[in-house]
Request: fold
Amino acid sequence: MPSRLAKTRPLSAVSAGQTPEATPELTRGEPAACAYCFGTGMEVVSRRGARRCRCRTQERRRQLLEAARIPRRFERCSLSNYRPDPTQGTQLQAFNYAFRLVDEYPAVERGLLFTGPVGVGKTHLAAAILRGLIEKGVPCLFYEFGALLKDIQNSYNKVSNTSEMSVLAPVYEIEVLVLDELGASKPTDWVRDTMMQIIGTRYNERRLTIFTTNYGDARREVADETLEDRVGVRLRSRLYEMCRTVTVEGEDYRRKLAALV
Reply:
């Protein structure tokens, strides 16, 4: 493991669990005036002048978190509650890459592609990155790739109130996107064309994207498929340029939890 990765600042610097001090509670059904800005939106900081009030910042973060569509099972995932297996160096390395991305953003040129078997914390890290970036005020979006394909297909229904572009526009335009479970859907021509359209658009616009996948670049067994088998040669080539590939290994933590019950 590169030594420079381990020498990150303390985790508290990007703890996604930290939130600004709460504003006063509602009284008689009406919002009370903020004790810091008195409703002006700007608070005065001693010896530093005026800045955007913490009450407005907190509301903005709440809105960004809601818009990010992080699934309920992962909505509390943060870098501060990620517990890498001490016997698996790849998990600590993956955490370090996630920490650095949040810490250094927006001075980041490449996303991350977390690969590895099920139950090793790939989605936890992806969701934690989004929470950390939202704490910095960055618009983010989470999509499980199979669910995104289904939403696109549903838009073709004549009775649907959505269009294909209304589904895809946020995916194309969001500042930071997580695509979870890349390669899990059966690789039909339509699926591959759709993947190329989505990822190609973000590639051309240089938008940061985080991926997770159970498929790696090497076959573990004769019957195994690689990520290239699932997404195609062209798309895998673009992913090399868009993202740093981070392999995460270890035991399925869900299986370990089940054994303890």
Observations:
- The longest strand covers residues 208-213.
- The chain has ten helices and seven strands.
